[in-house]
Amino acid sequence: MARPQTPRPLGRVAVLIPTYNERENLPRVVARTRAAVPEADVMIIEDNSPDGTGPVADEIATGDAQVHVMHRPRKEGLGAAYLAGFDWALSQGYGAVVEMDADGSHQPEQLRALLLAAEHADLVIGSRWVSGGSVRNWPAHRRALSLGGNRYVRVLLGMPVSDATAGFRVYRASALRRLDLSSVHSQGYCFQVEMTWRAVRSGLTVVEVPIEFIERQIGDSKMSQDIVRESMRRITGWGATHRGQQLATRARQMRVRRAEAQWHRL
Ligand SMILES: Nc1nc2c(ncn2[C@@H]2O[C@H](COP(=O)(O)OP(=O)(O)O)[C@@H](O)[C@H]2O)c(=O)[nH]1
Ligand SMILES: [Mg+2]
Q1: Tens-digit pLDDT profile for the chain (266 aa)?
Q2: Among all ligands shown, which has an atom nearest to the Cα of 54?
Q3: CB of 31 within 8 A of CB of 112?
Q4: Is 73 helix (H, G, I), strand (E, B) or coil?
């Protein structure tokens, strides 16, 4: 994952913010984003939240031409929401697409550093688990889940990424176009791992930038047992396929070497 030397300008930037029951958090996070990166446009991807986040989003968009809202009929998970956002951003000609939570865990003030890093990369991950990264206010079980999940990903998939589950990211549009988005089926937070795995396998330049993640103060996390189960199931499946392919390659190499040795002996 070498770092190309010459910076490549990003072009127009779209910040995607998925929301489900974030009525109180949303106005603040959008205001902070607009202040921190005024040149970027914002797209709120709203899944018909019962708490009335939709009307709040519409009100923000009415007062700011750089804020847009996509209303989706029902909650379909983070992966589906982001895929809809990627489609929109690519169709609108944005050069870079940002993923950011609505609950203040991802600090808009740290986005500039990610965007600068994206001038030298295809995918930038705001990482909690590299040197300089941190997590504030997480209970022990969430910390263990994230660290354990990332360790599992590294062991099974052999990816040199410390925080593959992280959700504060910048993708270059050119990178998204290479990832065959129509075949991405992860629904929950496993989506982040799948996208990272695809980026690494496609030979894209993936860079981790340390961030401070702050657990939400308002509203509830949507993390659930189902989301964890989906991740375990999918990552185990990808790992089995990957390790199987590695073994098959090694067996093939050994057969070739044996045949060469026999040939030399003739
Ligand atoms: N549109 C949409 N947003 C979602 C969905 N699930 C979670 N989110 C949003 O994704 C972000 C991260 O969710 P959160 O519950 O804070 O996850 P946690 O930080 O891992 O506990 C927040 O902005 C949520 O509102 C969903 O199904 N649809
Ligand atoms: Mg959160």
Answers
A1: 555 568 999 999 999 999 999 999 999 999 999 999 999 999 999 999 999 999 999 999 999 999 999 999 999 999 999 999 999 999 999 999 999 999 999 999 999 999 999 999 999 999 999 999 999 999 999 999 999 999 999 999 999 999 999 999 999 999 999 999 999 999 887 999 999 999 999 999 999 999 999 999 999 998 888 988 998 899 899 988 988 899 999 999 999 999 899 888 87
A2: 1
A3: no
A4: coil
Name the residues around ion ligand 2, CB cutoff 5 A.
103, 105, 216
For residue 75, the ligand 1 atom closest to its alpha carbon is 27
Question: Alpha-carbon distance 96 to 126, whole Å?
Answer: 15
Q: Report the alpha-carbon distance of residue 62 to residue 52 in Å, rounded.
A: 16
In ligand 1, the atom with minimum distance to the C-alpha of 216 is 16
The answer to whether 13 and 41 are in contact (CB under 8 A) is yes
- Is the whole model's pTM more than 0.90, yes or no? yes
List the residue whose alpha carbon is closest to atom 19 of ligand 1.
221
**Ligand 1 centre and the CA of 24: distance in Å?**
14
Phi, psi at 6, each rounded to 5°: -80, 130
